[in-house]
Write a structure and sequence with these properties.
36% of the residues lie in helices and 14% in strands. It has 436 residues and is an alpha/beta fold.
Length: 436
C-alpha cells in the first residue's frame, strides 16, 4: 500500500505541519505552502508555531523531493520535503488541504483560501488521485464549492477521474498531550470505496483510531458542531460569571461546588478567541440562514462571548477606582496576547478587545508575551508587544493568558503598593483583587 501512496499536504500551518510530519514517518510527503519564508524556516529545521519540536521535524526532513515517479516504488524515500514550487507536488497521489477557513469583518465565512488551494491542486490533479479536505466548513462545502473548482481547473470528472475525502482537523494548538496521532480521526469519502481508502490512510498513522462517517456532509457537520457546542457552553458560564459578580459570589467557587456532581460539565468563564471556537459557529449559522432558519442559541452564544472583552475591561476599571487608582493615565501590564496558553498563535485573540477598551479609558497598556511574534501582532492588530519581561512597576497587572512562564513569575515585583492584580484565567488562587 505504501509503495503507491505519495502525499502532498497543502498548507503548513498549525494543522498541516503536524499532519505532514506524522505521515512522513511512513510515507513520502511533500509539504506545500505559498509562504516562502515559512518554507525556508521549515527547511532550516525549525517550527515557529511550536507544534512540533525541531528534533521531530529534523527526524523526517528531506532535502530532496521523495515523490518522483508515480507507480514506481524504487528510489522512494519516506520523509518530508517542504516546497513552494507547484511542480514538486505533481507526482503525488493524495492531496490533503489544510488551509484556514476564517470569517470576514461581518463574520461571514471566507472560503477564499479553500478556493485558491483547490485551484492549486486542480493544476496538478491526475486520473486516480484523491483530494482530502481537513479545513473546518459548513456541510456541503467540499462537494458543492471545492469539487467544482477541481473539475474546472483540471478538466477531470468527479468520482470518475478523481475522488474526494474529508477528515476534519482536531488539532489543539499548544497541547502536547492531545497531539494529532492521539486524537481519534473522523474520515469520509465521496464514494464508499474512497471512504475506506481515506480511512485506511489515516488509520495507518493515527494511534487513537478512526471513525468512518457515512458521507462527507456528515463528517463536515460533525466537525462544525464540536466547536459550536463548546462555544455555547462557555457562553453559559460567562453569563453565570456576570450574574455572580453582581451578587458578589465567587464564580469559580460555584463551579467547583457544582462540579462535584458526576455529570456536571467542567467549563470555565473566559475570552473565546482562536481560529476554531470563535469562528466555526458562524459557518454553521451561515448555512442555516441560507436554508431559511435563524439559529438563536448559536448566535446568542457568539454575541455573549464576543462581548467579554469589554466586560473584562470594565471590571478592571471598576476595581482600579475602588482601590483609589487614577484610571486616566494609569499604567497597566497585560500578561499575554495569544489566544491561549503556551501557544504563539495570535489569530482572533480576544485580548485585543480588552486592550482596546482599556485604551478608551485612557490607560497606557504594556503588552508582554514571551511566545507571541511581535511582527505578527504589529501586522494584525497594530499593537506593540515585547518578549522581554518589564523591569518596572505598574498601576495594574492583568494575567490574560496562563503561559507557564507567567505562573512561575513573582508578580509582586511588578506591582506598587496600590497596584491591582486581575486574573482573567482564574489560575492565581485567591490572592488577587479580581478574576473573571
Amino acid at each position: 500500500m505504501s509503495s503507491k501512496i505519495k502525499i502532498a499536504v497543502i498548507g503548513l500551518g498549525y494543522v498541516g505541519l503536524p499532519l505532514a510530519r506524522l505521515f512522513a514517518t511512513k510515507y513520502p510527503v511533500v509539504g506545500f505552502d505559498i509562504n516562502q519564508s515559512r518554507i525556508d524556516e521549515l527547511r532550516s529545521g525549525s517550527d515557529s508555531t511550536l507544534e512540533i519540536t525541531d528534533a521531530e521535524l529534523r527526524q523526517v526532513l528531506l532535502d530532496k523531493n521523495p515523490c518522483c515517479h508515480v507507480g514506481d516504488s524504487q528510489g522512494q524515500t519516506d520523509g518530508l520535503y517542504c516546497t513552494s514550487t507547484l511542480t514538486d507536488i505533481a507526482d503525488c497521489t493524495y492531496y490533503i488541504v489544510t488551509v484556514p477557513t476564517p470569517v470576514d469583518k461581518n463574520n461571514r465565512p471566507d472560503l477564499t483560501p479553500l478556493y485558491k488551494s483547490s485551484e492549486t491542486v486542480g493544476k496538478v490533479l491526475k486520473k486516480g488521485d484523491t483530494v482530502i479536505y481537513e479545513s473546518t466548513v459548513y456541510p456541503g462545502v467540499t462537494e458543492d464549492e471545492c469539487v467544482p473548482v477541481l473539475e474546472r481547473v483540471s478538466g477531470l470528472k468527479f468520482n470518475i477521474d478523481f475522488f474526494a475525502g474529508y477528515s476534519p482537523e482536531r488539532i489543539n494548538p499548544g497541547d502536547k498531550e492531545h497531539t494529532v496521532d492521539r486524537i481519534l480521526k473522523v474520515t469520509a469519502g465521496s464514494t464508499p470505496e474512497t471512504g475506506q481508502k481515506v480511512n485506511d490512510l489515516y488509520l495507518s498513522v493515527i494511534s487513537a483510531g478512526t471513525h468512518l462517517a457515512p458521507s462527507i456532509k456528515v463528517a463536515e457537520a460533525a466537525k462544525v458542531i464540536e466547536n459550536s457546542q463548546r462555544d455555547i457552553n462557555i457562553a453559559f458560564v460567562n453569563e453565570l460569571a456576570k450574574i455572580f459578580n453582581l451578587m458578589n459570589i465567587d464564580t469559580h467557587a460555584v463551579l467547583e461546588a457544582a462540579g462535584t456532581k458526576w455529570n456536571f460539565l467542567p467549563f470555565k468563564p473566559g475570552l473565546v478567541g482562536g481560529h476554531c471556537i470563535g469562528v466555526d459557529p458562524y459557518y454553521l449559522a451561515q448555512k442555516a440562514q441560507e436554508m431559511g432558519y435563524h439559529p438563536e442559541i448559536i448566535l446568542a452564544g457568539r454575541r455573549l462571548n464576543d462581548s467579554m472583552g469589554d466586560y473584562v475591561a470594565s471590571q478592571i476599571v471598576k476595581l482600579m477606582i475602588k482601590k483609589g487608582i487614577s484610571v486616566n493615565g494609569a499604567s497597566l501590564l497585560m500578561l499575554g496576547i495569544t489566544f491561549k496558553e503556551n501557544c504563539p498563535d495570535v489569530r482572533n485573540t480576544k485580548i485585543v478587545d480588552v486592550i482596546a477598551a482599556l485604551a478608551d479609558y485612557g490607560i497606557s497598556v504594556t503588552i508582554y508575551d514571551p511566545l507571541a511574534s511581535a511582527e505578527a501582532v504589529k501586522k494584525e492588530y497594530k499593537l506593540v508587544t515585547t518578549k522581554t519581561a518589564p523591569n518596572q512597576k505598574f498601576d495594574a497587572v492583568v494575567l490574560a493568558v496562563a503561559h507557564a512562564a507567567f505562573l512561575d513569575m513573582d508578580l509582586s515585583q511588578l506591582q506598587n503598593t496600590r497596584s491591582l492584580l486581575y486574573d482573567v484565567k482564574g489560575v492565581l488562587g485567591d490572592n488577587v483583587d479580581g478574576r473573571l
